[in-house]
């Protein structure tokens, strides 16, 4: 950032609050210190420049933090525009381009984040502004003239910062503003929606999705009942489509929390939520599938029995597919959840026939001993629920396996008949005799028709021998079968016209 330094930049020590210092003088000194902290320094191209003045600014902000924390009645009306201006000058900036805009998704355990060079000053400015918002002297009615929609929009744009320390301060700051400024709440939610829409349908890249979802988790928790229609639309049109983005792992815990909060508020949203999860269910990405299973377990932990009945069949058809996988340990853990098993027990007649084949098959073939134990426990619970139904499912499974074996045997016999018919066809022996006459096996093999054609072409053109051109190979495919069929009087075969 640029450095508009002035020659009279000097340390201004705020006096204490004794009675002999008039409040007007304190206010004047406070405003002077706020204005001197609007000077920006270069931390990127020349980190070692202006070290003395950088330290002066750092000490000044730190002193102001202590001043408004330990003193009362110091946030007077003239202070509000100065504080907001100082914060805006230091914070609202164009963020540098992403260090990895189109590469692999960010892994917080493996990848190092890009840290903000000016953080020694930015951190103190954030701390000062938070103390300002949290002060008992803070009056939202006065501040709303300066903390407006434009301010909030610029604040939300900073959530794309790559520095996790800054995003953490932004999260707390936005939460305080949402709590104190009722008139800005709808605008904040709307702008967050727009960030999510752009992330889902355009860029698929934003650094602050997890932090924004964490804020929304608290906001959703405070929604009044019954839920407004706009909140339901937010769940169905914004939160649920976030499941299809490839970088889901970065923000999935916060997203799952928001979804579960909605279902606890309004159980009628369970069916569209579960159906949306099944719609976005990953087909080939196992780690992402584990995330979906974790979220599904959280949903089933809070689901109402009346809502469970509506989604159980498509839901357990998907779980049966997961059980069929050789890596389905997470799914087996779900089946050992006490509340989920009680829901299954109440609807065993529908669920057991769906789940039994996959469980029984894996109990015989799975490679992992731990999984064998989990499957055994699940099958044992199913058997205890309804012994007769369990026996019926076992017999039906064995009958289907027998039918499957019979079909395979029929297919093998059919193919064997086709092979025998082909071998007994007199034309096959004639063709084999014409194409492969008896010869001395020690003699070199005769040149093929294609090789002869290519050899003659190379000789005529005085060209060195190389691979035969594609056109000759194509002509060979078309002419040789037709010549043979005309000689033998056979009808052209469909496969020769390719």
Automatic annotation (TrEMBL):
- The principal localisation class reads nucleus
Tell whether Nucleus is among the UniProt keywords: yes
GO annotation (BP), single: signal transduction
Q: Which domain of life is it from?
A: Eukaryota
Among InterPro entries, the record links this protein to:
ARM-like (IPR011989), ARM-type_fold (IPR016024), PP2A_B56 (IPR002554)
Entry GO MF terms: protein phosphatase activator activity
Sorted keywords for this record are:
Nucleus
Q: Name one GO cellular component term.
A: protein phosphatase type 2A complex
Q: Where in the cell is it found?
A: Nucleus
List, alphabetically, the Pfam families matched: B56
Q: Give me the segments passing through the membrane.
A: none
Family named by the database record: Belongs to the phosphatase 2A regulatory subunit B56 family.
Q: Cite the PANTHER family for this sequence.
A: SERINE/THREONINE PROTEIN PHOSPHATASE 2A PP2A REGULATORY SUBUNIT B, SERINE_THREONINE PROTEIN PHOSPHATASE 2A REGULATORY SUBUNIT
Q: What is this protein called?
A: Serine/threonine protein phosphatase 2A regulatory subunit
What is the protein's species of origin?
Gasterosteus aculeatus aculeatus
Highest classification ranks of the organism: Eukaryota, Metazoa, Chordata, Craniata, Vertebrata
């Amino acid at each position: 950032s640029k450095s508009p330094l002035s020659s009279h930049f000097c340390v201004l020590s705020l006096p204490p609050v004794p009675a002999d210092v008039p409040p007007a003088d304190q206010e004047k000194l406070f405003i002077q210190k706020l204005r001197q902290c609007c000077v920006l320094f270069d931390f990127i191209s020349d980190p070692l420049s202006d070290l003395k003045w950088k330290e002066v600014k750092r000490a000044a902000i730190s002193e102001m933090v202590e001043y408004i924390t330990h003193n009362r009645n110091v946030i007077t009306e003239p202070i509000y525009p100065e504080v907001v201006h100082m914060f805006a000058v230091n914070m609202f900036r164009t963020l540098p381009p992403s260090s990895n805009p189109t590469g692999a998704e960010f892994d917080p355990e493996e990848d190092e984040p890009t840290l903000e060079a000016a953080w020694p000053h930015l951190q103190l400015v954030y701390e000062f502004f938070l103390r300002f918002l949290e002060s008992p002297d803070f009056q939202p009615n006065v501040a709303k003239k300066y903390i407006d929609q434009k301010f909030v929009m610029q604040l939300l744009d900073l959530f794309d910062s790559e520095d996790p320390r800054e995003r953490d301060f932004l999260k707390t700051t936005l939460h305080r503003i949402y709590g104190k400024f009722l008139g800005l709440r709808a605008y904040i939610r709307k702008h967050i929606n727009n960030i999510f829409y752009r992330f889902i349908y355009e860029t698929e890249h934003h650094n602050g999705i997890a932090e924004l979802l964490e804020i929304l988790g608290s906001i959703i928790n405070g929604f009044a009942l019954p839920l407004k229609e706009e909140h339901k639309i937010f769940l169905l049109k914004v939160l649920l489509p976030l499941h299809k983005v490839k970088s889901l792992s970065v923000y999935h815990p916060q997203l799952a929390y928001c979804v579960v909060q909605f279902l606890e508020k309004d159980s009628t949203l369970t069916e569209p939520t579960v159906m949306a999860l099944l719609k976005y269910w990953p087909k080939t990405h196992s780690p992402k599938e584990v995330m979906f299973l974790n979220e599904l377990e959280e949903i089933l932990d809070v689901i109402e029995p009346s809502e469970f009945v509506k989604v159980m069949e498509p839901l357990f058809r998907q779980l049966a597919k997961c059980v069929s996988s050789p890596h389905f340990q997470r799914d087996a853990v779900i089946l050992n959840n006490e509340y989920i098993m009680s829901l299954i027990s109440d609807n065993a007649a529908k669920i057991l026939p769906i789940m039994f084949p996959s469980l029984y098959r894996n109990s015989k073939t799975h490679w992992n001993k731990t999984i064998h134990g989990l499957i055994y426990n699940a099958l044992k619970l199913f058997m205890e629920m309804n012994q007769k139904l369990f026996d019926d499912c076992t017999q039906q499974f064995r009958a289907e396996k027998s039918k499957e074996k019979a079909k395979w045997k029929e297919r093998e016999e059919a193919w064997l008949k086709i092979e025998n018919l082909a071998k007994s066809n007199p034309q096959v022996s004639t063709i084999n005799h014409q194409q492969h006459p008896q010869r001395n096996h020690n003699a070199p093999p005769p040149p093929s028709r294609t090789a002869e054609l290519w050899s003659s072409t190379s000789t005529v053109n005085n060209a060195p021998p190389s691979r035969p051109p594609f056109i000759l190979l194509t002509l060979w495919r078309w002419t040789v079968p037709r010549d043979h069929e005309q000689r033998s009087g056979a009808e052209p075969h469909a496969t020769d016209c390719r």
